[in-house]
Amino acid sequence: MVYITRKEYFCASHRLFNESFTDEKNLETFGKCSNPAGHGHNYELSVTVAGEPDPKTGMIIDLKKLSDLIKEEIINHVDHKNLNVDVDFLQGVIPTTENLARIFWKILNPKIKLGKLYSIQISETAKNFTEYRGE
Ligand code: NI
After folding, report:
1. Separation of CA 41 and ligand 1 centre (Å)
2. What would the pLDDT profile of 105-134 be if each residue is shown by its tens digit?
3. Distance (Å, rounded) from C-alpha 99 to C-alpha 16?
4. Which of 11, 69, 116, 117 is least enclosed by beta carbons within 10 angstroms?
């Protein structure tokens, strides 16, 4: 099995909060990410596809096509948006990278026909990233 990854980038704002929590509890739980007026991140989104390379092309999947798919299905909907209010498929979701990874998986998984979606990684900062493998 071979694993191939396409990385895309987007900028977005969000606020992490649970509306049933007090402001103090939101601050204690989500830290700076609960700032009431929101804040932004430069997100990195990596999508890994697993498969056997086609002997005729040497490729599992055309990375340009994978890039186009990620842009059409995800990036165009979230880039320069407020993740709490602007994005149809994130309504009612606390926009943590954990939740984003699961939702992006649900969107992309049925659309990947060559190879098999293996993992989705998302980072908001250089120090942290989240990985989801559909389990
Ligand atoms: Ni944040």
Report:
1. 6
2. 999 999 999 999 999 999 999 999 999 999
3. 11
4. 11
The residues, ordered by sequence, that sit 6+ positions from 96 with a Cβ below 8 Å of its Cβ are: 16, 130
Three-state DSSP class for residue 48: strand
Which of the following CATH numbers is that of domain 2-132: 3.30.479.10, 3.40.50.2300, 3.20.20.140, 3.60.70.12?
3.30.479.10
Residues forming the active site: 33, 80, 124
Q: Would strands 81-82 and 2-14 be described as parallel, antiparallel, or unpaired?
A: parallel
How far apart CA 25 and CA 72 sit, in angstroms, is 37
> Collapsing DSSP states into helix, strand and coil, what is residue 122?
strand
- 91 CA to centre of ligand 1 in angstroms: 17
pLDDT, tens only, 48-102: 999 999 999 999 999 999 999 999 999 999 999 999 999 999 999 999 999 999 9
